[in-house]
Amino acid sequence: MEVINGLNLKDTELRLGLPGAQEEQQQEVSCVRSNKRKNNDSKEESAPSPAKTQIVGWPPVRSNRKNNNKNVSYVKVSMDGAPYLRKIDLKMYKNYPELLKALENMFKFTVGEYSEREGYKGSGFVPTYEDKDGDWMLVGDVPWDMFSSSCQKLRIMKGSEVPPAL
Amino acid sequence: MGLRFPPKVLEHILSFIDSNEDRNSVSLVCKSWFETERKTRKRVFVGNCYAVSPAAVTRRFPEMRSLTLKGKPHFADYNLVPDGWGGYAWPWIEAMAAKSSSLEEIRMKRMVVTDECLEKIAASFKDFKVLVLTSCEGFSTDGIAAIAATCRNLRVLELRECIVEDLGGDWLSYFPESSTSLVSLDFSCLDSEVKISDLERLVSRSPNLKSLKLNPAVTLDGLVSLLRCAPQLTELGTGSFAAQLKPEAFSKLSEAFSNCKQLQSLSGLWDVLPEYLPALYSVCPGLTSLNLSYATVRMPDLVELLRRCSKLQKLWVMDLIEDKGLEAVASYCKELRELRVFPSEPDLDATNIPLTEQGLVFVSKGCRKLESVLYFCVQFTNAALFTIARKRPNLKCFRLCVIEPFAPDYKTNEPLDKGFKAIAEGCRDLRRLSVSGLLSDKAFKYIGKHAKKVRMLSIAFAGDSDLMLHHLLSGCQSLKKLEIRDCPFGDTALLEHAAKLETMRSLWMSSCFVSFGACKLLSQKMPRLNVEVIDEHPPESRPESSPVERIYIYRTVAGPRMDTPEFVWTIHKNPENGVSHLAIK
């Protein structure tokens, strides 16, 4: 019984996102009917589907268990316009140049020149990150160690989307 | 008629009956037994703080010395219950302060506890001894300071996984010099550093201290000096284990542990560096409980530790232990009763974890006393479930979380129906069950029929239709708590089995297809059920046939509650009044 009374469930979907949040950003949904696999769709199941959404409260672990893995420090990386997210292990890099080079390779772009006063100039791509307080910050302002221990997520913003404050 | 016991005789007999289930039965025999029982009950358990009013409880049990209260539904642990839903401790504390001033023990789980509550406890109960708060929130370290400062005979202060506004480590210094009664102290969920010298003095003057659980801010040096002050500890939660390795530091640590000859339970171990694990070897042979679920240590180091733990009964660990590590556990830890394996990367995209169903199969085969399992795994097979059920019919708690929603048996591509059937049929004493993976309605037919003693059942991303709920509510004789998310049933089964809901403590359903209309009907039909619709949007702004986001239904003799927030919609029992928030601030 797949049909849901012809109702558009998106009307009742609870979204957790900033006001005016863009479509490209991850949306947390609590309904994943679209992911249901049928028995006859066998062989492809092992490949992860590209546009994976996060599911609220799943897997069921308490929040104090998430992100407590200190020896491995995977953070999600999103790039505006890219179809799916990637993950990198921050512990693999010792400084900003190494990290930026890895990001450039992963997403095939170049980041501009960094200056304290003006941020990144020249390429239209700006690397930002979400810190422990949930604020979005420019990559490069704080010392590397402070950054790597507080970075929760990375987002490479396209120049045109960058708010003037950054 | 027959003989009647004089009340004094009945009282004496009842003094031997501790179990509340038995006491509940006793109280149903006749009026005089009800009266005698209620006047002698000292330990009161309220599984749902909204099922009964504080006034009713304090009135019924005048000799109450210990109260245990539970608030929010279990799925609140996974952020499925919005903040502000409810579960306030204040009305209970207020009622007890007025009527039960000889209260000695309060235990609360998933409740909102404020500093005012804690101050009121400290001020009202002269012989207060035990405060255990599990998964609670709403208070700060100031409230803890009030308890520490005022409760002269405090024996137990445990903050387990609470969310506390941490205003600093001063609270510890509020224990007066005259305080010597502590038996158990757990502040592992606090962030701030406490003054080690204060803690050392407190520990040194508490000869009865048996259990001490530190927070991550306590360093290894601090741990060493504390262990020297309290070698009699039976339970220890360490602080952070991640200091720089100095040779003298290591040997001091080893020595401190080897002097703790009575240590049975070890936890904490945040960020433990593998080089430090050998310091624990001396206590391993005596350990019955080991919580390594925050230790990011790889399999070889884990095995080296665990092979020394021959008396281990309870093991909590991360999936870093891998199948191979669990094979070792199966061979060395023959006394194991409880195993929990948590995901190291709790993410849907996690791959490459060398922990499969095989790990659990090893333990099920090797550990004959195994009765409680919580296992997170990316995928599973029916064959593994058959083996587990066959080898361990004595399982009491089986919680399997297949992390990939709708994941079938990855070897046969079938649903896991038959595997869970084997579990339900084979494990006759099963009290708690969580299912996952690809499951059709059939799985629930088997569970409804065979899981006769299951009291708590958790289901996610499963089933095909209303049949699944029909099977569960028409079977599962002992069901008390049912929590379901993301399953495709609608109204029919729920309304058909409304009466069953009064035999249960509670039913949680989220992201299913139950409509607002059904909630209304249920609420009107069943005066002793509170039907709460938890939804950001007013249900009346949509057609009645629209599914609502979350529903929490529970039996109650207290009527609708008066403290609902804006997003909780309760339906008036009188249909003319419609839907409202019965909120009184």
Describe the secondary-structure layout.
The complex is a heterodimer of chains A (166) and B (585).
Chain A: E1 28-29, E2 54-55, E3 74-79, E4 86-89, H1 96-107, E5 113-115, E6 119-121, E7 125-130, E8 136-138, H2 144-150, E9 153-158
Parallel strand pairs in A: 1-2, 3-9
Antiparallel strand pairs in A: 3-4, 5-6, 7-8, 7-9
Chain B: H1 7-14, H2 20-26, H3 31-40, E1 43-46, H4 54-60, E2 66-70, H5 90-99, E3 105-109, H6 115-124, E4 130-134, E5 137-140, H7 141-150, E6 156-160, E7 163-165, E8 184-186, H8 196-204, E9 211-213, H9 220-229, E10 235-237, H10 247-258, E11 265-267, E12 289-291, H11 299-306, E13 314-318, H12 322-332, E14 338-342, H13 357-366, E15 372-377, H14 382-391, E16 397-402, H15 417-426, E17 432-435, H16 441-450, E18 456-460, H17 466-474, E19 481-485, H18 492-496, H19 498-501, E20 506-510, H20 516-525, E21 529-534, E22 550-555, E23 568-571, E24 579-580
Parallel strand pairs in B: 1-2, 2-3, 3-4, 4-6, 5-7, 6-8, 8-9, 9-10, 10-11, 11-12, 12-13, 13-14, 14-15, 15-16, 16-17, 17-18, 18-19, 19-20
Antiparallel strand pairs in B: 20-22, 21-22, 21-23, 23-24
Helix pairs in contact in B: 1-3, 4-5, 5-6, 6-7, 8-9, 9-10, 11-12, 12-13, 13-14, 14-15, 15-16, 16-17
Structure, described:
The complex is a heterodimer of chains A (166) and B (585). Chain A has 166 residues and is α/β, with parallel strands linked by helices. In chain A, 11% of the residues lie in helices and 21% in strands. Chain A has 2 helices and 9 strands, in the order ββββαββββαβ. A 5-stranded mixed beta sheet of chain A has the order 4-3-9-7-8, with no helix packed on it. In chain A, strands 1-2 form a two-stranded parallel sheet. In chain A, strands 5-6 form a two-stranded antiparallel sheet. In chain A, a hairpin with a 3-residue loop joins strand 5 (113-115) and strand 6. Mean pLDDT of chain A is 69; it is low at 1-52. By secondary structure, chain B is of the alpha/beta class. In chain B, 31% of the residues lie in helices and 18% in strands. Chain B is built from 20 helices and 24 strands. In chain B, the strands form 2 sheets. Chain B has a 22-stranded mixed beta sheet. Chain B has a two-stranded parallel ribbon with strand order 5-7. The longest helix of chain B has 12 residues, at 247-258. Residues 580-585 of chain B have low confidence and may be disordered. At the A-B interface, strand 2 of A face loops of B.
